[in-house]
């Protein structure tokens, strides 16, 4: 581990001289004013202490706020340390608490899957619930050893968090597959509700609601969708909306190519977006229609930050062919798609972040005004997911990490890492960088100064090789190595 140098205060000698040659200072002046000087000194000291206390309180409040932002790590130890080992049979992470109190994993086995609640620090299994797949089994039943993928999301409620999990089973029977849904208390594993979505139905969640979109098709080849938002545990309907009837189109021939698409339902904290057959309908989390954001019937739409939507054509063009639908409905031609953000604390609400490619090292991160769509800045050569905290974007750029103002693009600092990062995250105070050589570095988030360096595999034997994958895991870092092993770092 590298040793960091710390600055120390050095003594300073004061040279007391008369203000003017020949001036005389009364020896009794200090004694006469000692009480006044002492009082002024005490007041200054109290002011400094009170000011520091206010700054400390503000910093604590800020860190407590960031702890609830998805993707933010729990504060790392100094130096960072391995909390426990990890093995593939621990199961795939499917849901987690933003405060790092619990995680839910899916442990797959032939013919089925179990959901398990674990302690993110110790890995102890707190509860285990089998996920029934009977309603979605393929024609041959369990003898076909179906492939299963579990997708979960969380909602809030006055009684605590809710984990909503769906099992997608393959192969799919003729006519589509039903989707089993399970609603759990992630702290105890208590099953709160279970239901099965009919073939073709879509689901998502926003705020406290489970949103299900169900298609109604007619013999003419048209489709209308009905969206229903319900309480996940009780099933009580909070709102219901229907789309217009549109021609159902899931394949478009462009030259000798056939482009296929599927209907999709997406959501964030404030919006729900349904796309199908080239159409896109936007709703508020309260069910209030926000309009038909369809651009053309040969593409799809995605939610972007700052209340914007990006439409992208099915066919890839050599020129900018996408459209940014801004918060006031303005439509601006763009050549980018919504950027992936590992952390977004909601700051810089007037800026939408886009990326023009997903290829590492050649992508450009772009900031645009969320109302006009005007390009504010462009940063080329970026890699991986960016972070947005307190109005500052942090992103890997080649062998460096750069921090820049989300609105102006002005660079705040540039930290040289020496090798391309494989992970970029934050615990609120540090920008955490992990490289393929197993080195974890922590840079001050506000000034970019190197604050911590550690080899995350220094206590492992035998040598696990280089880093394969790094991901946030219940507020901790899960580092997986090339030999298949892994550790949880905190």
Automatic annotation (TrEMBL):
Superkingdom classification of source: Bacteria
Xref: SUPFAM superfamilies: Quinoprotein alcohol dehydrogenase-like
Domain Pyrrolo-quinoline quinone repeat positions: 369-451
Positions of the UniProt region annotated as Disordered: 1-27
Pfam families attached to this UniProt entry: PQQ_2
Coiled coil location: none
Xref: Gene3D superfamilies: YVTN repeat-like/Quinoprotein amine dehydrogenase
This protein's name: Pyrrolo-quinoline quinone repeat domain-containing protein
Organism of origin: Cellulomonas terrae
Classification lineage: Bacteria, Bacillati, Actinomycetota, Actinomycetes, Micrococcales
């Amino acid at each position: 581990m590298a040793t960091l140098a710390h600055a120390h205060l050095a003594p300073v000698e004061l040279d007391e001289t008369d203000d003017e040659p020949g001036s005389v200072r009364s020896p009794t002046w200090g004694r006469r004013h000692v009480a006044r000087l002492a009082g002024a000194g005490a007041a200054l000291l109290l002011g400094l202490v009170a000011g520091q206390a206010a700054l400390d309180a503000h910093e604590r409040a800020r860190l407590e706020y960031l702890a609830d932002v998805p993707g933010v790590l729990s504060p790392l130890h100094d130096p960072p340390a391995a909390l426990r080992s990890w093995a593939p049979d621990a199961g795939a992470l499917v849901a987690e608490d933003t405060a790092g109190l619990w995680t839910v994993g899916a442990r797959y086995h032939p013919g089925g899957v179990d959901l398990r609640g674990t302690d993110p620090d110790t890995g102890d299994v707190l509860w285990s619930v089998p996920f029934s797949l009977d309603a979605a089994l393929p024609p041959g039943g369990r003898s076909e050893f179906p492939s299963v993928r579990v997708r979960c999301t969380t909602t809030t409620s006055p009684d605590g968090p809710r984990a909503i999990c769906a099992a997608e089973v393959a192969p799919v029977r003729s006519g589509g597959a039903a989707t089993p849904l399970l609603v759990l208390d992630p702290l105890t594993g208590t099953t709160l509700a279970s239901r099965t979505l009919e073939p073709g139905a879509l689901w998502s969640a926003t705020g406290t609601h489970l949103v299900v979109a169900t298609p109604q098709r007619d013999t003419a080849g048209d489709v209308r969708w009905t969206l229903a938002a319900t309480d996940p545990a009780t099933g009580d309907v909070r709102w219901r909306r229907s789309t217009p009837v549109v021609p159902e189109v899931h394949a478009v021939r462009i030259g000798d190519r056939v482009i296929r698409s599927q209907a999709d339902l997406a959501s964030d904290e404030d919006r729900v977006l349904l796309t199908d057959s080239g159409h896109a309908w936007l709703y508020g989390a309260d069910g209030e229609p926000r309009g038909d954001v369809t651009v053309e019937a040969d593409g799809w739409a995605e939610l972007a930050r700052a209340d914007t939507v990006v439409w992208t054509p099915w066919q890839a063009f050599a020129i900018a062919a996408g459209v940014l639908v801004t918060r006031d409905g303005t439509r601006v031609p763009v050549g980018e798609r919504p950027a992936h953000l590992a952390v977004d604390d909601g700051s810089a609400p007037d800026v939408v972040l886009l990326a023009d490619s997903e290829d590492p090292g050649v992508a450009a991160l772009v900031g645009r005004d969320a109302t006009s769509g005007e390009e504010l800045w462009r940063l080329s050569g970026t890699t991986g997911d960016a972070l947005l905290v307190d109005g500052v974007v942090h992103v890997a750029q080649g062998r460096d990490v750069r921090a820049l103002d989300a609105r102006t693009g002005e660079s705040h600092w540039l930290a040289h890492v020496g090798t391309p990062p494989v992970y970029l995250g934050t615990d609120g105070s540090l920008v955490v960088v992990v490289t393929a050589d197993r080195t974890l570095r922590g840079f001050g988030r506000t000034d970019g100064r190197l604050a911590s360096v550690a080899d995350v595999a220094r206590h492992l034997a035998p040598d696990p090789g280089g880093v394969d994958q790094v991901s946030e895991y219940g507020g901790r870092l899960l580092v997986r190595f090339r030999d298949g092993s892994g550790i949880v770092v905190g």
